[in-house]
Amino acid sequence: MIHDHDLLAKVRRESYAAEQYVTDEVSLEREDAMERYLGATYGDEQEGRSSIITREVLETIEWAMPSLLSVFASGDRIVEYVPEGPEDVQAADQATDLANHVFYKENNGFLILNTWFKDALLSKQGVVKTFYEEKEKTTEEEYQGLTEDQYQVFVNDETVTIKETGITDEFGNEIAEMEGDDGIMQAQAFDFDMMGNPIPRQVFYNVEIERTVNKGGIKVECIPPEEFFVSRKGSDPDEATYLEHRPSITRSDLISQGYDRDVIMGLPADDRNDPQGEEEARFGNSTHDDERADPAMKELTLHESYIYIDPDDTGIATRYKVIWVGSTILDKEPCEHQPFSLVEPIPIPHRAYGLSLADLVSPLQRIKTVIMRQTLDNLYLANNPEREVDINNIVSMDDLLMSRAGGIKRVKKMGSIREIAHPFVAQHSFPMLQGIDQMISERTGVSDAVTGIDADVLSNETATASNNQKAAANQRLEMFARIFAETGVRHLFKTILRLLVQHQDVPKIIRIRNEFVTMDPRSWNAEMDVQIDVGLGHGNKDQKVAYLRALLVEQKELLFQYGGMNGMVTPRDMYNTYEKLVKAVGMKSADGYMNEPPEGPLPPPQPQPDPNQALIQGQMQIENLKAQSRMSETQMKMMADEKAAERKFQMEMIDKQIDREKLQIEREKIAAGDRQTAAKLKSDEDKAAANLMIQSRKAQEDATQKDRDRAIDLIEREKDRQAQREATIIKN
Questions:
Q1: Which segments of the chain have a pLDDT < 50?
Q2: 353 Cβ partners below 8 Å, 6+ apart?
Q3: Which of 117, 284, 646, 711 is the most buried (most CB within 10 A)?
Q4: Which strand (E) or helix (H) includes residue 419?
Q5: How much is the pTM?
């Protein structure tokens, strides 16, 4: 075995070489990209001149991010595992659900993707580290009055450590303990009477326990690019001879991870107090105030190195994981796989680092900043021109220094103050600025058509032209997405599957599509391939939706024409198309819109009904309609007769009321004693009563006739509708 001293020397050499490679060629470019993204000054600003800084780097990256994230975070099964054989079909489906659950739910996958991709677009490379985190949670608990069976549950629980036990009887009296055959203290569960016979008694246990629960799980975290180092020829991280994660970590964190306290407290703290390079560009120029910090909170530079070595001198190198601080190796172990997943928007073949969007845009931002500053300076001078002054003819210099509307300049001689003309030429800058924007669009694929702010796109003669323009603009972004999918994302999910099979030693219960499912990864194939559905290569979103709809129409026609046993299309196939269509329009999944059908074809169709039976049923329907028609006609006649009888009864009541009024009038006439007046009154009242009776009877007769006419009309209409229904049934 290789000695720690020799191993440390080899690791240090590789670490220094990787650091020099990054420092000489990469770090300065990433530092500049970060400053351009944050809008830092260039250092050449002049007092009295414009110091504006354009933000093309920020705008380009932020506009590219939504398109990239929508590819990988728009559904629940973006990544799927491909079975290697028939025995892996069910396992692949379960592994897909569990891996996506681990990444998106347990590790907040959306935020990880956001940081990961933005690091790549800004700093050449995005790095994600995936590992199984051993994490235990210890709690102290206290229980009173436990029975023997309840106490034995704690004794047999491997996660429980009994710290203290007290035993009492039913009256609260303490009971002596004795050591059992297994070494565990047990209660003396009986007394003795005067004759020496045992007397059993009930005992209760009062215990203090310490419960340790394993809270470990798969951890996915983004690493700042300045903390990751790779050998010069590390274009493929799985084949790189050296990889290193170099974070700053406190002594307290190392001790909590299980390292020896005395060793950790004896390690020297970092001797640098000021951030440098990329760290300063990211966090600003602020100093670390470690002088008054607790010794446990002082930071150390931890080196987690992955290196190929030949410890047994067999001639075959093996990858080792070495953790070291300063000149002390804290841990070392062989490891088959490395935990880092890398994404780069523009990889350069055979190089560890490629190019970022910031590398493409940063020079153009510099040019645009210069032009904008000159444009604003020219505008300022045109609006506030300089003056030529004859100081011998000036009364007061304060007049020259104070400029206001309606102000007065006191001079001894006219023409002593004269403006120096500065022609306005800034309008010539705007075509240049537009040209720079076009260059940025061509380099990055981020254009106004993609962002949706180009009004000209909507004014094209056809929708096809608009779609083609947008699709062409998306090609560069789609290329970025495909590169991300085939490199870092694929490696990430292969690592997750490998860790699930290796560390998930008990079945896991998760909620998938509103159902709780039990999964046991121990029997899965850890080497299943990964398929990533990024939706590329089929045009833009509108085109994909159109393709899916056309496919759905073809599936429906096959099912309708050949039935559910056609052997080509099943309801499950149509459901899959619907699900992809739902995702294509921007929704997360098809849940809530349709139910997932069972596997297999549709059951055979039901036999067609007998035509003769259909004819008999039609004739029966006609007879039923005729009977209903006759019944309706009879009911309408009865209603008309009832209304006529009601009208007649009302007329009789009116006649009786008139008679009663006449009698009352006669009585009043006799009581008055005026026969002549009574006679005249009688004549007038008789005439009025007669007229009233005639008008009332006429109105009653008119209303009755109208009711009869209306009833007859309804009957005729019902007969016509009945005839039409019979004709329709006979025709069918």
A1: 183, 185, 273-274, 453-462, 536-539
A2: 25, 26, 124, 125, 344
A3: 117
A4: strand 417-420
A5: 0.68
